[in-house]
Write a structure and sequence with these properties.
- By secondary structure, the chain is an all-alpha fold.
- Strands 1-2 form a two-stranded antiparallel sheet.
- A hairpin with a 5-residue loop joins strand 1 and strand 2.
- Helix 4 crosses helix 6, helix 5 packs antiparallel against helix 6 and helix 12 runs antiparallel to helix 13.
- The longest helix is centred in the first third of the chain and has 102 residues.
- The N terminus is likely disordered.
- Belongs to the SEC10 family.
- One of its GO terms (biological process) is exocytosis.
- Keywords: Coiled coil, Exocytosis, Transport.
């Protein structure tokens, strides 16, 4: 509010109020004070004075803040001197002017408010119009994005298929390039027989031996296969594959020369203990007959197999000096020392083998087998000379009992050696079975020798008693009554001692019988349990490398590599267990055939002993059957785990949902199916060989049922279009042809129904209701499969088929 000029008359000047006075923190008291301050300055001063002084001008201020009014006499005196409120006229004029200006200001503000409302209404209409246009634009944008996403998906699928074709074409191109290169090399070997001088530098360059060996093996394999194919079709033709026959001969000569050269280099490196060079040569030699020659050559050149002094030292350690009679106790000590030295030597060789050979288990198997068949067998042949039952050795030389005691000592100590070698490592070799085979000739006739030994001891004791009785008779002359009684008493005492000795002989015989017979059941059960342990270890490897989805590419690659190693371990353990089952079956058959006869040959006067032995053997066989059953279940788990891994790694979404890009459909089995069938064919060879009869049928039936269930669960993860349904049907045909080798009718029927089930992806929607009229048993699976159709929602198949499902339920 603008102030008035103090020199002007208050009533003549207009009051000017400003709108800004009412903005911000507005105070009515402040506004009113500003209006009257110019007109009432003296009143303000008097009011201030009256507030500061007490009783000034005859006015008293009371304690509660009120002013005591002056008396009537005082008022009358003051009224005579001046007007009571002289500014009242000016204030009235001021208030009237202020009201007029306030009314004018209100009208201005109302006008401005009206204009603002009109403007806001106009802007709001424009805003709403803009929002409507934006919503339409966003909807169009979303539609464009949806079309773009669909197009990108289609292009991506097409690109993936094109990529597969390109990858296949690149592989074919690479194969063609390699084939051209191989043909060029083959033509070099196709020169005159024995002419290896005109070969490419590759085949004479020592720095490229590995490449040369690989190419030579490929050429040899190709030429031999070509000749094998040509022979049946051109019978009697002298010109058939003549050039390739020359090439095969030259390649054979070159491979032999290269193999000998590598073996010589391997031997030289072995003398210098250059493990890196040995490893390089062994890796290259593994291409020649899987490296068998290199492994056998290495084992054969070990000093313990070629040094004659080692053989002589073994004999002296166990049998003592030549011409002396060895006792069982000395033989036991000698065998313990010798077998410890053999175990230490094998352990040292194992360290070298692990560092050198790409397949160390195979080399360890050959080494352990060579140790048992050569070094141990040579010693046992000298130690255990089977005596003749017709002309047994005399008791003065130990008789049959000495042989039996030597046999028991040698058998027990050699079993300990087998356990030690198993701990060191013997590959897939059945070291316990090999050990048993070393004594098979002795154990076959063991009951006869044990029986003959007891008879020989009995006869020797009888002759001793007769000789003593004859000496007593000759020294006493005519026997009187008193002396006869004395002799009879003495004979009775001797008889008790003899019976005690008889009991001791039988106890010793029974202990040997227990040693030989108990090993049968222990060997069978332990072999199966060891094979089961390897299956358990393989399962642990699989579980260790199961990862989630949120992992880096490097971690995923490492896990995939580890999973491959776990799969190889599982396959190896599967084969090992099947070999153990096969050996177990053979051993059980032998035991069942000969056990009763072998027991009956022993000199056991108590009938209950035979029954107890039969019961114990039956218990052992039952234990072995339980271990075999559990192991076969583990084998099925191992196989199915690898099948699931292959399906997860190899199956692609585009396998069963091929884009409609105009390209011809692929009628081959999917890569996942091919890999699975190849794996099953490879791994089940051991099962077909090891299992027989009902055991084989039960195992393959269970595996077939598990495979059927696993495939159903696997296919639930995919979406199918008609071309994908055809591809699925091709896979089912491939699986069905394989499981037909199981000779399990129930499994064959399940896979035949799967082929019918795959039709749900091929037929038109309107034909689905009539598809299962002849096979109502698969409607439940069909209901799940139909939901995997690409057009399940767009064709509204759920409502179309609701009556079919309700009638089937």
């Amino acid at each position: 509010m603008k102030e008035r000029s103090k020199s002007s008359s208050v009533s003549n000047l207009p009051l000017i109020l400003d709108i800004d006075d009412f903005k911000g923190e507005f105070s009515f008291d402040a506004l009113f004070g500003n209006l009257v301050n110019e007109l009432l300055p003296s009143f303000q001063e008097e009011e201030a004075d009256s507030a500061d002084g007490h009783g000034i001008g005859g006015t008293d201020v009371l304690p509660n803040g009120h002013v005591r009014a002056p008396s009537d006499a005082t008022k009358f005196a003051q009224g005579l001197s001046a007007p009571l409120f002289p500014e009242v006229d000016a204030l009235l004029s001021l208030f009237k002017d202020s009201c007029k200006e306030l009314v004018d200001l209100r009208k201005q503000i109302d006008g401005r408010l009206y204009n603002l409302k009109e403007e806001v209404s106009t802007q709001d209409a424009k805003h709403r119009k803009t929002l409507t246009e934006l919503e339409k634009g966003v909807d169009g944008l979303f539609d464009s994005f949806a079309r773009l996403d669909s197009r990108i998906s289609s292009v991506g699928q097409t690109a993936a298929k094109i990529g597969d074709h390109l990858q296949s074409a690149d592989a074919q191109r690479e194969t063609a390039s390699q084939t051209i290169e191989l043909i060029k090399y083959l033509m070099e070997f196709n020169s005159s027989p024995g002419d290896l001088m005109e070969l490419s530098p590759l085949f004479s360059d020592d720095s490229r031996v590995a490449e040369a060996a690989s190419i030579a093996q490929k050429l040899r394999s190709f030429a031999e296969e070509d000749i094998a194919r040509a022979v049946p079709s051109v019978v009697g033709s002298a010109t058939a594959s003549r050039g390739l026959e020359v090439a095969v001969a030259n390649l054979q000569e070159y491979c032999n020369e290269l193999e000998n050269r590598l073996l010589a280099r391997f031997d030289a490196a072995s003398q210098r203990r250059e493990l890196s060079t040995m490893s390089e040569c062994a890796k290259i030699l593994s291409q020649f007959n899987r490296g068998t020659s290199a492994m056998q050559h290495y084992v054969a050149t070990r000093p313990m197999f070629i040094d004659v002094e080692v053989m002589n030292s073994d004999t002296r350690l166990v049998l003592g000096n030549q011409g002396s009679q060895a006792s069982p106790s000395n033989v036991a000590r000698g065998l313990s020392s010798l077998y410890k030295e053999i175990t230490d030597t094998v352990r040292k060789e194992a360290a070298t083998i692990m560092a050198v050979f790409p397949s160390p288990n195979d080399v360890m198997s050959i080494l352990v087998q060579r140790v048992l068949e050569q070094r141990v067998t040579a010693l046992l042949d000298k130690l255990l000379v089977k005596p003749s039952l017709v002309n047994p050795p005399p008791m003065e030389e130990g008789g049959l009992l000495l042989y039996l005691r030597m046999l028991a000592v040698a058998y027990e100590k050699t079993q300990e050696l087998a356990r030690d070698l198993r701990a060191v490592g013997c590959g897939d070799s059945d070291v316990e079975g090999l050990t048993e085979s070393l004594f098979s000739a002795h154990k076959d006739e063991y009951p006869e020798h044990e029986q003959a030994s007891l008879g020989q001891l009995y006869q020797a004791k009888l002759e001793e008693l007769r000789a003593e009785s004859q000496k007593v008779s000759e020294s006493s002359g005519t026997i009187g009554r008193s002396k006869g009684a004395s002799v009879a008493s003495s004979y009775q005492q001797i008889s008790v001692a003899v019976v005690t000795e008889f009991v001791r002989w039988n106890e010793e015989a029974i202990s040997r019988c227990t040693l030989f017979s108990s090993q049968v059941s222990q060997y069978i059960t332990d072999g199966l349990e060891r094979a089961r342990d390897s299956l358990t270890e393989a399962a642990g490897l699989r579980e260790r490398f199961v990862l989630g989805t949120s992992v880096s590419r490097r971690v995923a690659a490492a896990a995939a590599s580890a999973a491959e190693a776990a799969a190889a371990a599982g396959e190896s353990s599967f084969r090992s267990f099947m070999v153990a089952v096969q050996r177990c079956g053979s051993s059980v058959a032998i035991v069942q055939q000969y056990f009763a006869n072998s027991i009956s040959r022993l000199l056991l006067p108590v009938d209950g002993a035979h029954a107890a032995s039969c019961e114990e053997m039956a218990t052992a066989m039952s234990t072995a059957e339980g271990a075999a059953y559990k192991g076969l279940q583990q084998c099925i788990e191992t196989v199915m785990a690898e099948v699931e891994r292959l399906l997860s790694a190899e199956q692609k979404a585009t396998d069963y949902r091929s884009p409609d890009d105009g390209m011809a459909p692929d009628h081959r089995p999917t890569n996942a199916c091919t890999r699975v069938v190849a794996y099953l064919s490879r791994v089940l060879e051991a099962a077909f060989t090891a299992l027989e009869g009902l055991n084989k049928q039960a195992f393959l039936t269970e595996l077939g049922n598990r495979l059927h269930k696993g495939l159903l669960n696997h296919w639930q993860k995919f979406t199918f279009n008609p071309s994908g349904g055809l591809r699925l049907k091709r896979d089912i045909t491939e699986y069905g042809e394989f499981v037909r080798s199981f000779n399990a009718p129930s499994v064959d029927e399940k896979f035949e129904l799967l082929g019918i089930l795959a039709n749900v992806f091929i037929v038109a929607p309107e034909s689905l209701s009539t598809l299962f009229e002849g096979t109502p048993s698969i409607r439940k699976d069909a209901q799940r499969f139909i939901q995997l159709r690409e057009d399940y929602k767009s064709a509204k198949l759920a409502s179309r088929l609701s009556s079919l499902w309700s009638s089937s339920s």
